[in-house]
Amino acid sequence: MNDRTRPDLLAPRAEKPGAPADARTATGYIGLSVPRAGARRLLQGRGTYTDDLKLPRLAHVVFFRSPYAHARIRKLDLTTAARQPGVIAAFDGRAIAEYCTPWVGVLAHLKGIKSPPQHAVAIERACWQGEAVAAIVAESRAQGEDALAHVEAEWEELPVVTDMEDALSNRSVIHPELGDNICFKRDFVTEGFEDAFAKADLVVEETYSFGRHTGVTLEGRAILADYNAGEHSLTVYQATQAPHMMQDIFSRHLNIPEANVRVICKDVGGSYGIKVHVYPDEMATAAISVMLRRPVKFLADRLESFLTDIHAREHKAKVRLACTKDGKIIGFDLDDLTGIGPYSVYPRTSGIEGNQVVNLTGGPYAHKNYRARLNVVFTNKNVTCQYRAVGHPIAVAITEGIVDLAAQKLGIDPAEFRRRNLIADDAYPYTFPSGLKFEQLSHHQCLDKLLALMDYQGLRAEQKRLREKKIYRGIGLAAMIEVTNPSPAFYGVGGARISAQDGATVRLEPTGMVTCLVSVTEQGQGTEGIFQQICATAVGVSIDKVRVITGDTGTTPYGGGTWASRGAGIGGEALLQAGKALRANILELAAAALSIDKNALDVSTDAVCDKATGETKMPLAEVGRIGYFRPDTLPLKFQAELTVTRHYTPREYGFTFTNGIQASYVELDTDTGFVKLLKHWVVEDCGTVINPMLVDEQIRGGVVQGIGGAMLEECLYSPEGQLLNGSLADYLVPMSGDTPDIEIAHVCTPTRQSELGAKGVGEAGTAGAPGAVMNAINDALAPLGARVNVQPFTPERILRALGKV
Amino acid sequence: MDEFFEATITVNGKAVTRRVQPRQHLIDFLRDELGLTGSHTACEHGVCGACTVRIDGQIRRGCLMLAVQAHGCSVDTVEGLTDSGELGALQQEFHERNALQCGFCTPGMLLTAQELVATQPDATREEIRDFMSGNLCRCTGYQSIIDAIEEVIVTRRKGAQP
Q1: Interface contact A736-B103, CB threshold 8 A
Q2: Nearest to A729 among B45, B104, B139 (CB)
Q3: Which end of chain A has fewer CB within 10 Å, C or N?
Q4: Which CATH architecture has domain B87-160?
C-alpha cells in the first residue's frame, strides 16, 4: 500500500543500528543495539523447532475432529481405523480421560466466572467445529491421517449459537448445567456518574465491532511428549511460552510428581500469546505418551491451527463520552460484549480480555467518571483467549474513536483535544477511575514528540491541499496506556499456579566465562540477547563471554516465562541482581587471594582490577581457576560462591503501566474502497531501553499485527458455526507489500520499582495500531460524510459506508 | 499408498537416491528423509514461502511440489547455500539489522531475497517490497527485512561500479 508517487513518505533505509562488538556505554551494554548472537543459527537454518526433533520409537498422533459446531456423538467406532497400516492405537475421550483429568478455566478474582469441565478429548458432545473427539496414533503422520478416513462416527446435531447477542439472550443455552450462556459479567460505576453525564454539554455515542482473529504463528503448535515408565517421568518438548506453568499442569492432570516432569522449550516459531495456553490436543498427546510408554509428537497443521489455536478480540462495544463545550472530557460509559467459544480457556480464563477492556477504556485521559458493563458469553465457535496486547486493541480503538468523534463535533483539532485531556505529566502517582494505579507516565512528552516527528501541521496542510484535488487522505492518532510487568495481582491472586516472579542463576565458569540460566523464555523477541547485555554489564565481562540458557524446567530457576510484556522488566531485573551478586562474590575471592581490601577492587573487561587506577589485578580466568581447582590456596574459612541465584517480583503496583501514542497516515480510494497505509509513527515510553534495535523491531512487528486486525484479519463463521476461511489463502495477513514504513521515537521514564528501570514493550505496537488506523480512515472519510466502525475495514465495508454498494 | 518410486535428486550438490512415495511433498522429503530441517512447513498451501527451496536455480515452494517431481533436478536449501557462502552477505545484513525474530520464515526469506539480488541488481525499495510480498513474516513487520536486502543490493551496485 505504499504510495509510489510519494517517495518522501518512504523512510530512507535506516542507518545500520548494529553496534560494534567492542562498543560499550557508561552503563556497560545497556542501551546498545547489539545484534543478538542467537539469531545466527536461525539464519543458517540451524534452529531446532519442536517438529525438527526425532526420538527413537517416536509415534505421531492425529485427531479426529468434530465437523459440527455443536453435536452429540451418537456413535464413535475406531476399530477399522485402528487396523489401518501403521496405526499403533486409537483412543476416544473416555480412554484418555482415565489418564488425564479435566480442567475448569476460572479464576477466583474474576467474581462469578463459570465454565464447564473440559476434557483433553471430548466425551459425548462436541461444542465447536474442530474440537477433537478421537486420537489416532501411528508410525507416521501420513498413516495417521489415512486412518482418520476410517473413523466411523454418527452425530446428532444440536442447536448452534454463533452470534454474541443471540448467546446473551439465552435463547439456546450451550451448557444447560450452568443455567445461562454468561461466562463472566462485570458492572462498574463511579460515584456521581449519572449526575456528571446529565450535566455534560455534549455526549457522543458510537458502537464499535471487532472481528475475531488469531495469532497465525508460522510454526504450528507443537509438542513431543516422552514418558519413561521406568522412572515415572515425563519429558515434554513443547513450543510454549510458559514451561513451568506447563510442568505444573502436566503434573497435576496426568498425576506425575512435579519434579518428574521436565518441560523443554527449544526454538519457537512465533507465539504472540497463542502458545501460553493449555490446549486439549496437547494434553492428549502427553496422556497418550503415558498410555503407550513411548514418545509421541503432535504438530497442528494449518487448518488445525485456524480451528483450534485460540482466537481473540470478537467484541461489540458501545461507548459514550461526555465532555464540556470547551472540550474537557467528563467521563466514559462502556457496554462491551464479547463471545469466547464454548469453554473459558485454562488456566488464564477467557474473562481477562474483556476485563482488560473495562480496566483500560478511557485510560490516557484525566476524567473522573466511568461506568462499564461487560458480558462475556459462550458461543459454538472456537475458544478465545489472550493474544498479543490482550484487550488493548479494543480499549484503545474505542477510546480513541470516541475521542475523535467528540473533537469533530466540537470542531477542535484531534491533537489539541488530546492535549487538553491527557493526564498531565506531573500528576503522578495517579489513580484512574477504574482503580488502576499509574506510577509515572509521559503522555504529553510523547504527544509533543509525535507531532514533531510526523510534522503534524505539515501533513494537515498537505491533506487540505489534496482534498481540493479530490484525493482523500486521513490522519489518525491513538494515545494509549499498556499493562506490562504484571504482579501476582494478574493471575496468582485468582488461584492460578502462574508465577509472577522470575529467577536467574549466574555462574562463573572456570575459564572466566559466564553462564546464565533464566526462567523467562525466548520466542524471537531477543530475550536471550538482552540477557547477555544485562549479564555482561552486571558482572563486568565482555558480551562474548556470556552464554544464556532459557526454556528448560530441568535447569533454570522457577518462573513465569514470557507473556504480558514481562521478560525484560521482571526476568531482566532478576538477572541484573544475580549478576551484581556474582560480581561481589568474584571480588570477595580476588580480595582473599590477593590480600587486598575488596572495596579497592572492581570487575571490568573480564578481569578484577584496581578500582582507582583500572590496573588489572587478576583475570577472571584466574578467579575461576583458583575458585574451582585451587581453593586450598585461599584462607581456611573462605568458601568461594561462584554461582548465584536471584529472583524478582514486582509488588508495589499491580502492573507497571507504559504509555505511548501512534499516528497513521492513509489514502482512500473512493472508487474501490481500498486504503493505502502511507506511513505509521510511534512514540513509546517503555522506561529503560536495553537494546534500541530490538525494542524498535518489537514495536514494528506489533504495529503490523495490529494493522492485520484492523485491515484484513477475521475468522469468518457461517450461521451453522463453520469456519469459512481456514487457510492462509482465505484468511489474509499483512505481507510486505501491504505494510507501511514505521518511524519510532522514545521518551524514557524508567520505572522506579526496579534498578533496571525497564518496562515492557512487546505488545505496544499491536495495542495502538488499530485505533490509529481507524481514526485515519475516518478522517479521510469525514469530508464525504461517512464513517466506519467495524473492523477489519475491508473495501466492502468502506464502500458501504460511502453508499456505493 | 504402498507404491514407491526411486528418485535421484542432487541435493546441495550431492546426488541422493531414495525410494519415495509418490504423494510425498518435496518439503517433507527434505525434512523427514534427509534431515534438512532448515526449510519449514507453515501454510502447506503455497502462500507463505517458509518452504522456499531452489530447484535448478529457481526458487520454488517445497510444499507445492512432490519429491518425485524433483527426480533428476538439482535442489538447493538454506543449509547448502549457507555452506557455499552464497547467502553470506544477506545473512550478515539480516543479523546486523535484526531482520528476523523467531526465524521460522527466515530461510525462505533468504532464498527469495537471494534470487532478487541475483536477478534484479537495480531493484528499488518498492520493487523489493513487491518481490518479497510472497513470503510471510509474522514477527518483524518487514521493514528491517526490506532494509537489509536494499543494503545488499546497494552495496553490490557500488562494488560493480568501476
Answers
A1: no
A2: B45
A3: C
A4: Orthogonal Bundle (1.10)
At A204 the pLDDT is: 98
CA distance A804 to A40: 51
Burial readout A31-43 (b: 16 or more C-beta within 10 A, e: otherwise): bbbbbbbbbeebb
CATH of B5-77, picked from 3.40.50.740, 1.10.10.10, 3.40.640.10, 3.10.20.30, is 3.10.20.30
Query: What sign does the dihedral A777-A780-A781-A782 (CA atoms) show?
Result: positive
- Closest Cα in chain B, distance from residue A524 (Å): 4
A608 three-state secondary structure: strand
Helix axes A392-410, A764-781, angle to 10 degrees: 30
CATH 3.90.1170.50 holds for A50-158+222-308: yes
Using CB atoms within 10 Å of the CB of residue A306, give its burial: 0 to 12 exposed, 13 to 18 middle, 19+ buried: buried
Interface confidence, given as ipTM, is 0.98
At residue A21 the predicted structure's pLDDT band, cuts being 50, 70 and 90, is: low
Domain with CATH 3.30.365.10 in chain A: 7-14+310-488+652-801, 501-648
In chain B, where the domains are located: 5-77, 87-160
**Is B82 in Cβ contact with A44 (below 8 Å)?**
yes
Which segments of A241-362 are extended strands (E)?
A: 261-264, 296-299, 311-312, 315-323, 329-339
Report chain A residues whose CB lies below 8 A from the CB of B107.
45
Positions of E strands within B66-150: 74-76
* Residues 6+ away with beta carbon under 8 Å from B118: none
Does residue A267 sit in helix, strand or coil? strand
Please give the mean pLDDT across all residues of chain A.
96
* pLDDT at position A6: 42
CATH 3.30.365.10 fits domain A7-14+310-488+652-801: yes
Tens digits of residue pLDDT in A458-483: 999 999 999 999 999 999 999 999 99
- What CATH class has A501-648? alpha beta
A634: left (phi over 0), alpha (psi -120 to 50) or beta: beta
CB A330 within 8 A of CB A200: yes
The model's pLDDT over B9-48, given as tens digits with 9 standing for 90+, comes to: 999 999 999 999 999 999 999 999 999 999 999 999 999 9
Q: Who's near A567: CB < 8 A, 6+ residues apart? A: A520, A521, A525, A527, A760, A762
Please count the residue pairs, one from chain A and one from chain B, whose beta carbons lie less than 8 angstroms apart: 193
How far, rounded to the nearest angstrom, does the alpha carbon of residue A501 sit from its chain's CA centroid?
17
pLDDT average, residue stretch A254-262:
98
